[in-house]
Specification:
Blueprint lengths: L4 E3 H7 L5 H11 L12 E3 H15 L15 H9 L5 H15 L3 E8 L2 E8 L4 H23 L5 E5 L9 H6 L4 E2 L6 E5 L11 H10 L2 H4 L8 H9 L12 H7 L4 H10 L4 H19 L4 H7 L5 H12 L3 H14 L1
Parallel strand pairs: 5-6
Antiparallel strand pairs: 1-2, 3-4, 4-7, 5-7
Pfam family, one: HTH_18
InterPro entries: AraC-type_N, Homeodomain-like_sf, HTH_AraC, Tscrpt_reg_AraC-type_HTH
Keywords: DNA-binding, Transcription, Transcription regulation
Length: 340
């Protein structure tokens, strides 16, 4: 079973507008150790980030993290979902969806355009603070794309995504969140997908809406991840290798399995901002974090399970991945859980 994690950047951005006491409460509810905010390389389980999103929304009465001057009161996303269910196809649903977000937000909104064979959602964002403006673009694209995919009952691949902001240090996250064809420092943030997708019928109804909302926001930002990127393909292939240091395939053999050359595969991964070693490390890090949070296995047992024959090597690797030792990660997580 895949164990996805979320980069610490998104955790820090999510709690940026909370007062100290509210921030402490939201992190505790989500089971995220507060000290990880000082570790930019750390990651948290996807379900913890989902719980944090909901906790921040309750603290602020704002489902958009306090980024927009108006605020998107709790329940707004559910109203938008209900409003688009009666649309016959994705074209009408997407236009109504974008109008809905524009009703609840003052400083950021999207418009649908047809450009050649592409449908393009372009964002206008007047938020003055740079970090907030970037996070607002990231969040609105995820909400719009996730809702589009759910309405159609399938993932709608994005052909290209351009961002108004500069390439951030965590840009490799974007290849899973959106697609692997990315542009930065663009005049406008926009996502492109095949125009023919607009004719897809809306396949959801009020009964499926209840389940979707119960599992949101994780059902929005995780279920419809881009699994077609080269890094995602490699990650899927490597899942079975976790737990056996001898079973990691040779890079050249993997390239052959994917019907490409090692040079081409290395170049494609580089374009996505990653490498074979990084993918291996992230996969093992994700599994280790899941075991530390959700199992009673000892640290040494976890080290062996994810392919480290030397426990001390695992301790060094985990410190490099997250900024803290595995025992400290588990201890502080347990302390936070006991305080809830």
């Amino acid at each position: 079973m895949e164990r996805h994690t979320v980069a610490m950047h998104f955790v820090s951005a999510a709690v940026a507008h909370l007062q100290p006491a509210a921030k402490e409460r939201a992190l505790a509810v989500a089971g995220i150790p507060a000290h990880l905010l000082d570790q930019p390389n750390a990651r948290v389980p996807a379900n913890a980030y989902s719980a944090l999103w909901l906790a921040v929304a309750r603290e602020l009465d704002d489902e958009f993290f306090g980024l927009d001057r108006r605020g998107m009161k709790v329940g707004s996303f559910a109203l938008i979902c209900q409003a688009v269910l009666s649309c016959a196809d994705l074209d009408r649903a997407l236009k109504r969806m974008l109008r809905g977000f524009a009703l609840f937000l003052d400083e950021v909104h999207g418009e649908l355009h047809l450009e050649g064979g592409d449908a393009v959602v372009r964002l206008t964002n007047t938020i003055s603070q740079e970090d907030d403006r970037r996070f607002a673009d990231e969040t609105l694209l995820i909400l719009v794309h996730g809702l589009m995919c759910w309405l159609a009952g399938r993932r709608i691949p994005l052909r290209h995504v351009s961002f108004r902001h500069a390439r951030p240090p965590y840009a490799r996250e974007y290849t899973l969140m959106y697609c692997d064809d990315l542009t930065f420092d663009a005049p406008q943030t926009a996502m492109h997908f095949e125009g023919r997708a607009l004719s897809l019928p809306v396949s959801q109804d009020t009964s499926t809406l209840q389940h979707f909302l119960r599992t949101a926001p994780q059902s929005v930002f995780l279920k419809y991840r881009n699994e077609d990127s080269w890094s995602a393909q490699l990650r899927r292939r490597l899942r079975d290798s976790v737990g056996d240091a001898e079973s990691w395939p040779v890079f050249e053999d993997l390239a052959g399995e994917l019907r490409t050359t090692p040079t081409t595969l290395r170049r494609r991964l580089d374009r996505e901002g990653t490498s074979y070693q990084t993918i291996k490390d992230e996969l093992r890090s994700d599994v280790a974090i899941d075991y530390l949070c959700n199992s009673s296995m000892s640290v040494d047992e976890i080290a062996a399970r994810i392919g480290f024959r030397d426990a001390s090597a695992f301790h060094r690797a985990f410190k490099r991945w997250t900024g803290v030792q595995p025992g400290e990660y588990r201890r502080r997580r347990s302390m936070d859980d006991s305080d809830r």
